[in-house]
What we know:
Keywords: Repeat, Ubl conjugation pathway, WD repeat. Pfam families: SOCS_box, WD40. Residues 369-405 form the SOCS box domain. With 405 residues, the chain is mainly β. 7% of the residues lie in helices and 41% in strands. It has a five-stranded antiparallel beta sheet, with no helix packed on it. A four-stranded antiparallel beta sheet has the order 1-31-30-29, with no helix packed on it.
Amino acid sequence: PEEPVLLAELKPGRPQRYDWKSSCETWSVAFSPDGAWFAWSQGHCVVKLIPWPLEEAELYKTSERKSRGGKGEARSRGVAKEKTLECGQIVWGLAFSAWPAAEAGETDPACAVGLPCLILATGLNDGQIKVWEVQTGHLLFSLLGHQDVVRDLSFAPNGSLILVSASRDKTLRVWDLSRDGRSVQGWRQVQVLSGHVQWVYCCSISPDCSMLCSAAGEKSALLWSMRSYTLIRRLEGHQSSVVSCDFSPDSALLVTASYDACVIMWDPYTGEQLRTLRHVPLHSVLDYSSEVHTSSLRSVCFSPEGLYLATVADDRLLRIWALELRSPVAFAPMTNGLCCMYFPHGGFIATGTRDGHVQFWTAPRVLSSLKHLCRKALRTFLTTYQVLALPIPRKLKEFLTYRTF
């Protein structure tokens, strides 16, 4: 694949006047499930909601977007307008909801029960989770319960409006924002998951909504059942803190990224380590003195078709990895990267940086083979154990369980 090309860079402009604690880092970026919106925690307690795609003038040349303050800055693009969400606290985590499935007699159950058709949850420095209506930019409600920074958020991809939050208070909390989750006291907190002894950095719900992975400042990641909210297993193999995790689109693979400069690919059903991707310094590309932890990983994510991974590390590189290879197939120099996220339909990667910027990169466009499409379709509803029990040749089982690397 070709090297990633920087298409656009959006900058927060002149920082608004907040106290020194209102840091400027972009800790989180997110695309809505349909790809129509992009959210960017640009620092200084502000989240930008931007209609996608960016205008051509912005997408094909590096551009700067100035903050003028206030919600009236939205520029018109048909119905969708850019919005500024004033969160009042440093924003760490972002997650869009998927649409609930329509029920008989309802055109859109989300709207029918008083919720908007698309919502954005923001995890804040004081432990609050603020939930916003995307189309209007209005604050709908706050979720209270965490005692410290809400570091990451993940909505169940099936549109059930189950939200998982990960916090520095060392817990994960499960919230039900559906009609059934509403009570007189507010939205229902389904479960508190305790098991980590350090700050929880990351949470990821599998696309089939059966599993939850969480990563804290520990050498092991935890895998939970989303049905019983109990711990399935500890994934042990890293030599330093695990800080990021993501499931493949068919839920058959799980990747974890650590400060030990490695990404481990797991079979979440068996707990086996399938392979390790090591971030080797590329001194020919970069000119800096070798230091400990220069390759500390910050973020890892799967591409939408499940054939590539993107990683951001402290060695100032965005790397693209092919699933079956042990070294990067493409990389691009970037500064101070903190997070990365694929566009839901492929072709782009968004990265957030420590100085509050967000960058958009080209990503390899791939035509999945018929073999991979069949594997992905089967693995969407078959566990590893169910595949191994099938009366089919061993080589086919190895392919279907991603053991042909």
